[in-house]
Design brief:
By secondary structure, the protein is an alpha+beta fold. It has helices spanning 5-19, 40-47, 146-154, 160-165, 175-184, 198-217, and strands spanning 24-29, 52-58, 61-66, 70-75, 80-85, 95-101, 106-111, 117-122, 258-262, 265-269. The chain folds into 2 domains: 5-128, MutM-like, N-terminal (N-terminal domain of MutM-like DNA repair proteins, Alpha-Beta Barrel), CATH 3.20.190; 146-269, Helicase, Ruva Protein, domain 3 (Orthogonal Bundle). The chain contains 6 helices and 10 strands. Helix 3 packs across helix 6 and helix 5 (175-184) packs across helix 6 (198-217). It binds a DNA duplex through residues 1-4, 33, 60, 75-79, 94, 111-115, 130-131, 156-158, 162, 165, 167, 174-175, 224, 263-266.
DNA sequence: CGTCGCTCCTGGATGC
DNA sequence: TGCATCCAGGAGCGAC
């Protein structure tokens, strides 16, 4: 569950080799609302005969580039899965879309909570998609510099945790990696962003990159239902220091890890290592 | 524009 | 034991 940047990147990497060069034979849509802004019949017709030329990740979005100047944009939200399957495989519960390829292999979109969305747009209209349009900087990209981070924090009066989750600020951080980064940087999630010292800002900057990088190296965090494109679990759940550890002793100081709702989301932190 | 709260969903966990 | 309620949380949306 909860695909964030490392999980979406892992899905991308697991599918890339298998799907590049494949030609769509069509798409069966079982739940219309998943396929946003397009009639399922049109969707099937437009995909038919198009070849996948490449896959890109932007924040938590996956973009499939197709021939004919088209792009298919997939957001897994919380419980979405993209699974590469053979036609014999039994159709799992909550399978909402099945993509067929000309070689008879399939890509299936499975999503228990039905929050995930799929768009099909011309490449030149990608920037008009709400969400993609306003997406912030890539935290593992060149433009996410320490200077940028410092400068952005300076005028923000919001709490640091909700700010880290703001996709128009930095793209791809979700609840798990936000809590983990704040713990590593020893910063309380309720601190007002603008009040972080230069030292704290630098620590948080490094911690964000570190937790995301490790998440990718460990092929994602599989807590509930996250799987990559081949149905494999990640191992980063074994690397978490505070997320889901409320009631347990802090790995650094032994004090009990707390859980508190901040900005409407559960936040896990050590009250001693992350003083307010 | 920044910030906040509500909403969409299912199913596992928790409460009485 | 059974039923009701809560909770998980990404992001679009409307309100202020």
């Amino acid at each position: 569950m909860m695909p964030e940047l490392p999980e979406v990147e892992t899905v991308k990497r697991s599918l890339e080799g298998k799907l590049k060069g494949k030609t769509f034979a069509g798409a069966e849509v079982y739940l219309d609302k998943i396929v946003k802004d397009i009639d399922p019949v049109d969707f099937d017709q437009k995909l038919k005969g198009k070849k996948i030329t490449g896959i890109e990740r932007r924040g938590k979005y996956l973009i499939f580039y197709l021939t004919g100047g088209l792009a298919m944009v997939v957001h897994l939200r919380m419980t979405g899965q993209l699974l590469y399957c053979s036609p014999e495989q039994e159709k799992a519960k909550h399978t909402h879309v099945i993509f067929h390829f000309s070689d008879s292999d399939q890509l299936r979109f499975v999503d228990q909570r039905q929050f995930g969305r799929i768009h099909l747009v011309p490449v030149k209209e990608l920037d008009n998609l709400p969400g993609l349009k306003s997406l912030g900087v890539e935290p593992l990209g060149k433009t996410f510099t320490r200077e940028f981070f410092k400068k952005e924090l300076r005028n923000r009066r919001t709490k640091i945790k909700p700010l880290l989750l703001d996709q128009t600020f930095v793209a791809g951080i979700g609840n798990i990696y936000a809590d983990e980064a704040l713990f590593r940087a020893m910063i309380n999630p309720e601190r007002v962003a603008a009040t972080l010292s230069p030292r704290e800002t630098a620590r948080l900057y490094m911690a964000i990159k570190e937790v995301l990088q490790e998440g990718i190296e460990n092929k994602g965090t599989s807590i509930k239902d996250y799987l990559d494109g081949e149905g494999n679990q990640g191992t980063n759940q074994n690397n978490l220091r505070v997320y889901g550890r409320h009631g347990e002793p802090c790995v650094k100081c032994g004090k009990t890890v707390e859980k508190k709702s901040i900005g409407g989301r559960s936040s896990h932190f050590c009250p001693k290592c992350q003083k307010l």
